[in-house]
Amino acid sequence: MHLLLVNPNSTKSMTEAAAKQVEHHLNQVYPGSHRNIKISLFTGPPDAPPEIDGEETSLESTRKCLPLLCERRPAAATADNLQYFDTFDGVLVACFSDHPLVCELLAKTERSTPVTGIFHASVTVCLSRPGSQFSIITSNDEWVDLLDAGAERLLGASRPYATSSCPFKGTVASSVPVLDLHNPQNLHAIAKRIYQENVQRLRTSTIILGCAGFSGMETPLKDEIRKIALQEDPSNQLHVTLVDSVICGIETLALMCRLQLSVGE
């Protein structure tokens, strides 16, 4: 199975960080010769936005990436002269949003190539946990309304979330720019924000790390949140589940590919 991980912004270091986390996960789950998933990487071109911080940059990144992803491969490379993204078994758009690139690729595929985004995949995973309420921690403040609106479209949720029967309880902004999320100096501030807002105010113990820039931060964030909880109350037995959206995306996409192959046989 050959999957394409698409980072629609132009920051290669974000692509590499997500890829590193995916490779680590796959090597643990499928050790040695049992691994049957290969990952290729795509980073947005230099004139794509360096980070996606709202609706405008989402649309701009789609405009810059779509022509490259739909380029025809030379006949010598692929006998069927397929579009580039259609040469893979599945495509993951690694931007945590209801990113328009997902729908654009699904509309253009000529061989029913599965395409999903890390936003859609991680929300689906959280819904599979019966009785578990969940929320999102994102980067910039601009994302709060956009992600809430995306979740409402996907789940049929409505505000106020606190009184809603829907397990989704809202989005919190870390107020840390995307490219600064991995800076160790910001770890405590992000963890404190999650503890105060996602855990205490929204009363959720399952929190989606709602940005590809969070990939690989699950363990250090969880440890820091635990320290903050113990400082507040030494008897606090807090348990939180931090959901890595990129890992959810890869596993969900792999399942989609397997099911499609099974149906086609």
TrEMBL record:
Descriptive protein name: LAME_0G00694g1_1
Family annotation (InterPro entries): Asp/Glu/hydantoin_racemase, Hydantoin_racemase-like, Iso_Racemase_Enz_sf
Cited Pfam families: Asp_Glu_race
Family: Belongs to the HyuE racemase family.
GO molecular function: amino-acid racemase activity
Organism per entry: Lachancea meyersii CBS 8951
